[in-house]
Design goal:
single chain; Pnp Oxidase, Chain A; 29% strand; globular
Length: 157
């Protein structure tokens, strides 16, 4: 389990990303971070959450380090109809939550290959794993994490 102190720091980073998107400068972080607009499962309010992503075969994959405990994750489980902004592109998507450890571990391996330093440091500091964890370690981590695949309702170029 990741300490609450870590999540409090992450919330501060997310606020900066939200301000960048709100100011029209979302393109600055859009190469790495998308803005997910989702509906609160209890409140019915609209929320905007900046998240790191990978675009794979036209879909947008996002890891939920807090797994099914993340509020945004629970919100998209309750209502998979979301709106996503990547840089200056904005589009509606259908969210597919993924909790199968094998599929989550596949995604983590993919991210480690694409961003070895950044993801390796996250593994080390957030999850107390080596920077280059084994498949077995990723599978163990995958039991407490999740992935969401955002499938655009129309093709995004």
């Amino acid at each position: 389990m990741i300490p609450d102190e870590f999540w409090s720091k992450m919330k501060n980073v997310q606020r900066v990303h939200q301000r960048l998107y709100a100011s029209g400068k979302g393109w600055i972080v859009g190469w790495l971070i998308l803005l997910l607009e989702h509906t609160g499962r209890r409140s019915g309010k609209r929320y905007a959450t900046p998240l790191q992503y990978e675009r794979i075969n036209g879909a947008y994959y996002v890891g939920a380090a807090r797994g099914q405990q993340a509020d945004w994750f629970r919100n998209v489980q309750a209502d998979p109809h979301v709106h996503v902004q990547v840089s200056r592109l904005a589009f509606d998507c259908t969210a597919e939550p993924v909790t199968d450890p094998e599929r989550v571990a596949d995604f983590l391996e993919y991210r480690l290959k694409r961003h070895p330093l950044m993801i390796g440091l996250m593994m080390k500091f957030a999850h107390k794993l080596p920077m280059h964890p084994s498949r077995a370690q990723l599978l163990e981590l995958s039991k407490s994490t999740a992935v969401v695949i955002f499938q655009p309702q129309q093709e995004v170029v």
